[in-house]
Amino acid sequence: MELDRRLSEISGALPGSPRSLGDATLDRCLRGHREFDSDSALPVFCQRQTALYVTFDGGLQDVARRWHEALTAQGWQGSPAPLPSGSGYTAERRHYVDPATDDYLVITMVGDQQSLPLLSNEQSFEGATQHRREYRPFNDRQAAESALSGRHRVAEISLIRTYFSEGPRPRPPY
Predict the structure, then answer these.
(1) Residue 133 has what pLDDT?
(2) Separation between Cα atoms, residue 47 and residue 103, nearest integer Å
(3) Position 94 pLDDT exceeds 70
(4) What Cα–Cα distance (Å) separates residue 173 from each residue in 51, 76, 102, 134, 160?
(5) Separation CA 91–CA 81 (nearest Å)
(6) What's the angle, vertex CA 74, arms to CA 73 and CA 80, rounded to 5?
(7) Rounded Cα–Cα distance for residues 171 and 136 (Å)
(8) Predicted confidence (pLDDT) at residue 20 exceeds the cutoff of 50
(9) Separation of alpha carbons 119 and 141, rounded Å
(10) DSSP strand pairing (128-136 vs 91-97)
(11) Which of 78, 108, 129, 162 is the most exposed place for a label (fewest CB within 10 A)?
């Protein structure tokens, strides 16, 4: 599939030779909630999200900076993204948009086992109902835990494409 091929190209171009741990897929359609029953129906949009889980060496901030430089050189536009406030996670997260395709890339890097819940391959949309058309989660959490125990880091590289939209395509950040 085109999205899987693109994700493989992106991860293959990242410095530091990240090593694959597995992947995940989410295909869903969403509709925003109406504030009042008399409001007209909100548009539906559908997205396919595929993620690659990798392990890498180095400090989170240093690797995030080097990956950011590599992605910027490929034409991605991005910036650091906030983590849940007060969470205490040891992590880095960055959101990117490809202006040519409107593809959305989210990279979440974690440095300890307590931060693994951040690797969910599911961006949240407040006030939207969702219908999952396909869902295959990352099933090798033990490999991620083992990598973190061995002083490596783990990242989720998630590529999201909106393939159907009744209105304007939603633009990140979500």
Answers:
(1) 87
(2) 10
(3) yes
(4) 17, 14, 12, 23, 12
(5) 11
(6) 75
(7) 24
(8) yes
(9) 10
(10) unpaired
(11) 129
Q: How many CB atoms lie within 10 A of CB 80?
A: 12
Which DSSP symbol is given to 167? S
Give 17-78 as a 3 state SS string: CCEEEEEEEEEEEEEECCCCCCCCCCCEEEEEEEEEEEEECCCHHHHHHHHHHHHHHCCCEE
* Entry pTM: 0.87
Which of 23-37, 78-92, 127-141 is most confident?
A: 78-92
Q: What's the pLDDT tens digit per position in 66-84?
A: 999 999 999 999 999 888 7
Confidence of residue 104 (pLDDT cuts 50, 70, 90): very high
